[in-house]
Specification:
It is a single chain. The protein has helices at residues 9-14, 27-34, 49-60, 84-89, 93-105, 125-137, 154-159, 171-180, 201-211, 226-234, 244-247, 256-264, 287-292, 305-320, 343-362; strands at 20-24, 39-43, 69-73, 142-147, 163-168, 184-188, 194-195, 217-220, 239-242, 270-273, 281-284. With 366 residues, the chain is α/β, with parallel strands linked by helices. It has a domain at 9-83 and 118-253 and 341-356: Aldolase class I (TIM Barrel, Alpha-Beta Barrel), CATH 3.20.20.70. The chain is globular. The structure holds flavin mononucleotide. Flavin mononucleotide (FMN) is lined by residues 23, 43, 45, 71, 73, 146, 167, 188, 191-194, 220-223, 241-245, 247, 328-329, 331, 333.
Length: 366
Amino acid sequence: MSQDPLHTKLCDQLGIDFPIVAFTHCKDVAVAVINSGGFAVLGEAMHTPDEIAADIKWIRDRIDGKPFGVDLVLPASAPPETTLEEIQSKIPQTHLDYKQSIMDKYDVPMPKQDVGLHQWGGLSLSHGRAQLEVLLEERVPVIASGLGSPAFLLDAAHERGCLVWGLVGRTRQAKRQLEAGVDAVIAQGFDAAGHTGDMGTLSIVAEVSAIAGDTPIIAAGGITTGRHLAAALCLGASGVWTGTLWLASRESDVDMIIKERLIESEAADTVYSDSVSGFTMRVLKCPWTDEWKKPEAPRPLASPYQMILSADYTQGANDARRPDLMYEASGQGVGFVTEMKPARQIVSDMVEEALTVFDDIVGLPD
Ligand SMILES: Cc1cc2nc3c(=O)[nH]c(=O)nc-3n(C[C@H](O)[C@H](O)[C@H](O)COP(=O)(O)O)c2cc1C
């Protein structure tokens, strides 16, 4: 056994101490994880190109030349070019009526402000491409694509010295991305928060690792402890990609009501549903997801239509600050998120626990 089981080829690829990747929308979390020896990828799919450029600068100013990543969503199924208004005009009346019946039943107020979806990268191909231009221009060290294959941007990214990571939910997607030459594949299982496929984390990480050759595989989905990290490495991954783990951290800007719900929740409090965005997604259970499961509910629309349909509920629930209505993406590892810890402590606890697990199983050299 090597001296340090946590020193993997992902650590070598990035020059980081620990093979722990945080996916986060919060810049403070990203900076704290990077400065604690891990790696962070900032989710920027909801932001304008100017906001993305400003966020990149903000992070660069605080990490002393260390690498970081930015994640976009680039679904090939998105319409080529469209506006929010055009999408809204295509939502069937049956679905608008069903949405309204949920809003009325639970007394959800209409949002006080614009829901802010005009820039979502999944809205159209042109939105995603405009965001991507900024990442290339800024030579972001790692460009990750959470939805959709990033194979089309490999040449442009590599010419600028950027690495490209693709997130997959199926082994055949991984195979295509590996053949195209991505620099790492995130194999994300059913346990994950947010958009996710139907393969279990254990199965997809093992299958993708088996075909990856020298390309690092990063395990995702339900990973919230050092024991999970150790298990992922045993399955052949070179690191872990984690989302839920950071939501209730001290630095996180997630609403305190949601932090409290996450701390109280277990795996069974999450649900796999296509009612939020039109893609299958894991979130905390809430009236919106419950109502779309009922036999009388219409079939949820495809993305981006369902995402636009659910937006009034989501924002209205947040505006009302009602814990019984609010939800957030959450993975099945949420049961181990039991307190609001600083990100640095989350990193060190995960490292320590993983090392203890390896030591218990095989014994580590002194
Ligand atoms: C609140 C939240 C929002 C997310 N949004 C995105 C996103 O915009 N793009 C993306 O690629 N992944 C997104 N994800 C998924 C993460 O990238 C990651 O794959 C997932 O959280 C891993 O599962 P875990 O939460 O069980 O660790 C999101 C996750 C969370 C928790």
